[in-house]
Structures are given as C-alpha cells and as structure tokens.
C-alpha cells in the first residue's frame, strides 16, 4: 500500500510504501528482473559445530553484497535446521548467474569456509520453471 507520493516528476515518480522509499522506475526494473528470471542457484551449507550463529550472521550480512549485483533478481538466505542453511537466488540469464558465482559473496564465503563450514557448500544450478 502506498502511503504517499513524494515526487511526480516524469520518469522519476517516488513513492513511500511505509518501509521504503522507491522510485517507480527502480520498482518496475525490479519487477521485470524477477519476472524474467530463468536460471538460479540452490546452495546448501552445513555449519561447523559452534559456528551456526556466525554462519547465520554471515548470510544476513551478505544481503548487502548481493544488492549491489545488477543481475541478481532474487536472493534468499534461509535456515533449514540447527546446522543446515541455504541460499536460493535467481538471475535473468546465465551471465548473471556466472557473475554471482565469482562475485563478492562467493569470494567472502570462500575466505571463511574453513572457519564456518563443516563441508564444502553444495551448489546446484537450477532452471526456473514457474513462479508467482
């Protein structure tokens, strides 16, 4: 629900939706990216004993890095159980997926893997078949 319209300049309409102030142009681009996502990644991570909270913190902080990636359409970090975590993300094309795999999150996780992970991450490329 839109709380207020902050600007109505042509092409730069900005709305306040309560939790964020978003340019209509940016919002439409985000929606287009999500609706055209055709590939993704499903990653599962097993935390070392005693490192569960640190891995959860790492994943929460990684969001800021993913936001900077122009071809990351969606990104979810989640907890499966007390030691298992996961990431699911989507991209509009294979180039975006490959850029993400060599991006800042992958580099940061790689540098902390021995400290945080009980085993190497399981990284499965996926094809997006349907979404709502």
Textual characterization of the structure:
It contains 4 helices and 7 strands. A 4-stranded antiparallel β-sheet has the order 5-6-4-7. Strands 1-2-3 form a 3-stranded antiparallel β-sheet. With 132 residues, the protein is an alpha+beta fold.
Short description:
The chain has 132 residues and is of the alpha+beta class. The protein has four helices and seven strands; from the N terminus they run βββαβαββααβ. The N terminus is likely disordered.
Q: So what's the CATH class of the largest domain?
A: Alpha Beta
Query: In DSSP terms, counting alpha (H) and pi (I) runs of 4 or more, how many helices?
Result: 4
Shape: globular
Q: Average pLDDT, to the nearest integer? A: 83
What descriptors fit this protein?
disordered N terminus; 2 domains; alpha+beta; single chain; 132 residues; three-stranded antiparallel sheet; Alpha-Beta Plaits; four-stranded antiparallel sheet
Element layout with pairings:
Elements: E1 4-7, E2 14-16, E3 21-23, H1 24-35, E4 39-46, H2 52-67, E5 74-79, E6 84-91, H3 94-101, H4 104-116, E7 122-127
Antiparallel strand pairs: 1-2, 2-3, 4-6, 4-7, 5-6
Helix pairs in contact: 2-4
């Amino acid at each position: 629900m839109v709380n207020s319209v902050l600007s109505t300049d042509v092409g730069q309409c900005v709305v306040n939706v309560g939790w964020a102030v978003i340019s209509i142009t940016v919002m439409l681009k985000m929606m287009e990216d999500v609706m055209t996502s055709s590939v993704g990644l499903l990653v599962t991570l097993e935390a070392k004993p005693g490192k569960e909270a640190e891995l959860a913190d790492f994943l929460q902080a990684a969001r800021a890095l993913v936001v900077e990636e122009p071809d990351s359409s969606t990104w979810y970090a989640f907890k499966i159980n007390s030691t298992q975590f996961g990431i699911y993300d989507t991209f509009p094309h294979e180039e975006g997926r490959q850029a993400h795999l060599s991006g800042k999150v992958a580099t940061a996780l790689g540098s902390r893997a021995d400290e945080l992970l009980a085993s190497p991450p399981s990284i499965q490329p996926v094809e997006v078949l349907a979404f709502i």
